[in-house]
Write a structure and sequence with these properties.
It is a single chain. By secondary structure, this protein is an alpha/beta fold. The chain folds into 2 domains: about 140 residues, Aspartate Aminotransferase, domain 1 (Alpha-Beta Complex), CATH 3.90.1150.10; about 240 residues, Type I PLP-dependent aspartate aminotransferase-like (Major domain) (Aspartate Aminotransferase, domain 2). It is built from 13 helices and 12 strands. The strands form 3 sheets. The chain has a 7-stranded mixed beta sheet, with helices on both faces. Strand 6, helix 8 and strand 7 form a beta-alpha-beta unit. Helix 1 packs parallel to helix 12, helix 4 packs parallel to helix 5 and helix 11 packs parallel to helix 13.
């Protein structure tokens, strides 16, 4: 049997590789504290679940969910965008429901790239962004995200020959895995740069609410109010703990929305309409649910930073997201994958290797704060014992 060449770049995945290792450890009888995957352990709010449950008894929700049946959801998103960011968008042409934001970031390259075209991605960056480019037959240019630049790309460093072959740039702030945030001024510079070079500007925005200093995170569309170049992806997974329901949406340039809708029409329809009703309830709700989520992850951040400091591992306090981005001890500085495997085998604590997020992620590991404080302290204690072993 023969398979397509496009599968070759997809052979290795930071989450899949660790999942295999976790299974092997568990087969040996060791319990695992899994801090490798950013899947929230918090429950979906009851009022959201009630809206979904009520829909089950409505036969009008039992058929295919085509674009027209998402009108209420799109209108709700438009109202939410205006209330949240002061941006007026057309729900018919500038909003598209998605089966999670990852559907959008993975499929949009199919609409933008011809084989061998370049996409400008963050390095380190979320693996799905890379996968979408590979599926489209494109080439990736990784824009280095370095600590000395506050984990922001330097656009002037992108080679001119790469720019000449580039069609799109993908950004995501607050950033996974580095936890960095970006200002509106930075987004304005990105919009200007993409306009000068005729690039589609894609912003993946799953952590818009998970900010701990009380600073509202800007939308890329606030920097591109006429939506000349930009599309932004949102998800209900993080703010409302709806990861398993797979509901997100895209907002932005109508031509980009139209192109993504054309790809989507070939691949799938939409979610069950009952899930969309739950999402409508969430978007129309007061901020209490989101505030609770933010408070939970802020407490976990504080606990884990302090617990790691107590074992001698000093980590900068992140301003956002549900992660810690930690520079490795010297003896593992150039092999984050080995550190993660050695730690897992010795302690049952699973982390994500920085190298799995790109070349410039080497030397770091990512902690996902998806357990309550007492478990995080236990994990830190086990890590301390591991690091103390010669």
């Amino acid at each position: 049997m023969q398979f397509a060449d496009r599968l070759q770049p997809l052979q290795s995945n930071v989450f899949a590789d660790m999942d295999i290792a976790k299974s092997q450890v568990q087969k040996q009888g060791m319990s695992v504290i899994d801090l490798s995957l950013g899947s929230s352990d918090l429950p979906t709010a009851p009022f959201i679940l009630e809206a979904i449950a009520e829909a089950l008894n409505d036969p009008n929700t039992h058929g295919y969910s085509l674009f027209g049946s998402t009108q209420d959801f799109r209108a709700t998103v438009a109202a939410w965008m205006q209330q949240r960011f002061g941006i007026v968008v057309d729900p018919e042409t500038e909003i598209l429901p998605l089966i999670g934001s990852q559907e959008g970031t993975a499929h949009l390259p199919l609409a933008l790239l011809n084989p061998r075209d370049f996409a400008l991605l963050q390095d380190p960056g979320y693996p799905s962004h890379y996968g979408g480019i590979h599926l489209a037959g494109g080439q990736v240019y990784g824009m280095p995200l370095l600590a000395e630049n506050n984990f922001l790309p330097v656009f002037a460093d992108i080679p001119s020959d790469v720019l000449a072959q580039s069609k799109m740039m993908v950004l995501s702030y607050p950033h996974n895995p580095t936890t960095a945030t970006a200002s509106l001024d930075f987004f304005e510079s990105a919009v200007d740069f993409c306009g000068q070079h005729n690039l589609a500007l894609v912003h993946d925005f799953p952590y818009l609410d998970l900010e701990f200093n009380g600073i509202s995170q800007p939308s890329i569309l606030q920097a591109d109010r006429d939506r000349l170049h930009s599309i932004e992806f949102f998800t209900m997974s993080k703010s409302f703990n709806m990861g398993g329901f797979r509901v997100g949406f895209a907002v932005g340039n109508r031509e980009l929305i139209k192109a993504l809708r054309q790809i989507k029409a070939v691949v799938d329809f939409n979610q069950y309409q009952g899930i969309m009703r739950g999402a409508i309830k969430a978007l129309n709700s007061d901020h209490a649910v989101v505030e609770g989520v933010v408070a939970t992850f802020k407490e976990r951040r504080d606990v884990m930073v302090a617990a790691l400091a107590s074992i001698g591992w000093q980590i900068p306090e992140p301003a956002a997201t549900m992660y810690l981005w930690a520079k490795l001890p010297d003896r593992y500085a150039h092999n984050s994958a080995k550190f993660c495997l050695d730690l897992l085998e010795a302690t049952g604590v699973a982390l994500s290797a920085g190298s799995g997020f790109g070349k410039h992620g080497e030397g770091y590991v990512r902690f996902a704060l998806v357990y309550p404080p007492e478990v995080l302290r236990e994990a830190a204690h086990k890590i301390g014992n591991f690091l103390a072993t010669p």
